[in-house]
Amino acid sequence: MACVASASPRPILRPRVAATRPTTRPPTKTTTFASSSPSSAAFDGGVSARRRLPRGASTIAAARGGGRAAGRGGGGRGGRKSTGGAVKRYKKEASRAIDLEEEALALELEADAARVTSPSSSSSNPPRAARGAKEKRGGSGSRGTNVFPASMDRPTTVGEQLQFERKGHCVLRGVLSREEAAGMITELMHETKARTLQAYRHRVAVLVPGYDVSSITSVDDALRVLEHETDEEIGFLQTFNLHRPDPDDVSGREPAAAKFILSRRLARVAYELLDAREGDKVRLYQSCVFAKPPGFAATHWHSDGNMVPLDTNKFITLWMPLRDLDEDDAALVFASGSHRDFSLPYWHSLEGMSDLSGRGYEVESYDPLCIGDATAHSGWTLHWSPPQPEDRETRYALSVCYFLDGARRLGIGGAESLRQTPHGEDEWSWREWIDDVDEGKAARHPALPVVYP
Ligand SMILES: O=C(O)CCC(=O)C(=O)O
Ligand SMILES: [Fe+2]
Which atom number of ligand 1 is nearest to the Cα of residue 383? Predict the structure, then answer.
């Protein structure tokens, strides 16, 4: 699908889902993980993640040895260095993608919508709870900004809400107009580039645990360390919290990108998809820009919740590309329904997670996203993204995570912990507030601001 310029957000009336199929079509539209697939992705401890998949024919193999929670990109869970062959294979398989029966799905959703009492039963009116909340705006201590005018808000549809609830993910076309997105992208790119060294240091911290990253003073330093100290592939560069002051900038100024990330427009999407009720508040958990330069490897199967020290199911990530994507660009791929299945069995230990192939997840992705579009996934939804082909430009994406106020802080390790230790990949994000919030208490902290209502 080609991206067209549009002056205003484009509401869509029904979800547009393109599912990818395995090479051999199964009898039903469900694509399940096949444990013995020769080309399989891994949700792993760095053991087998090198094997990459054609979408829809994948194994999720988990952390072996030590039972560590799995992250998205290495540090004992990343892939091994490999050739570009997998990219070609991926492209070939991706080209087999065929659309889901969109009309059938839309009909099903419409029929269901008629039976469901939803807080937002119309695509043009804000949900009742949101309207009530609007009246209270300004009095809630919310840091949400109106940089994107509320009059142009793009309410989520019942179809999107249902799909998010059922599958654990959905696509939202035209959350921002191209013009709105362009202003945000300029600032995000500026901030991301200013923090390049930080992103490389973080990659070293994740892929070479224990390395003193303060000794790294240039990108070349980082590349040398990565070359010599690990045989894991680099899946992406992750720049944290572009709405918070740059820790390496002594001025401590708030970045110009902050007002976009803190926007009520985006937070409202989270509020609606999390099925928030009157009185609920959305907190911003973290923002990241994920850069995947050409030739970078896959982002491994993971759930964001596994990296978050919060006890909640009300957690959502919005993922927005910072340029128009096409079929070959690395976008997110989701294991539908995994959000209802995944967290509970692995709350205390990862034992048994080494092979999730029997769990029957359907693997789905969307038609290429344009500037201003977003996908949303639940904190427990398993997802990955493929390698970025050598012949494509770097893929940049903004990922913003929110949770409903009231979620309690979990322990971050030790026998006394309520759950297995969250993966440390995002520690650079939560270390700013974790010591200020007691375990078991609601995570309320200036670093986790209310942004909606
Ligand atoms: O962009 C990617 O490859 C990974 C992003 C991701 O996992 C997320 O936003 O939750
Ligand atoms: Fe993720």
Answer: 7
Our answer on whether the CB atom of 304 is closer than 6 Å to any ligand 1 atom is yes
* Euclidean distance between CA atoms 438 and 448, whole angstroms: 15
3-state helix, strand, coil in the chain (%, to 5): 30, 15, 55
Which ligand is the nearest neighbour of the Cα of 307? 2
Which residues have a beta carbon within 5 Å of ligand 2, which is an ion? 304
Question: Cβ distance 385 to 298 under 8 Å?
Answer: yes
127 against 313, higher pLDDT: 313
Q: What is the mean pLDDT of residues 380-396?
A: 97
> pTM higher than 0.85 for the full model?
no
Is residue 2 exposed (0-12), middle (13-18) or buried (19+ Cβ within 10 Å)? exposed
Provide the H-helix boundaries in 51-156. Answer: 85-94, 102-115, 128-135
Q: Indicate the domain borders of the chain.
A: 18-116+128-452
What angle in degrees, to the nearest 10, is found between the helix axes of 158-167 and 264-273? 60
Residue 358, pLDDT score: 77
Distance, CA of 406 to chain centre: 21
Q: Ligand 1: does its nearest atom lie under 6 Å from the Cβ of 230?
A: no
The domain defined by 18-116+128-452 folds into Jelly Rolls (2.60.120)
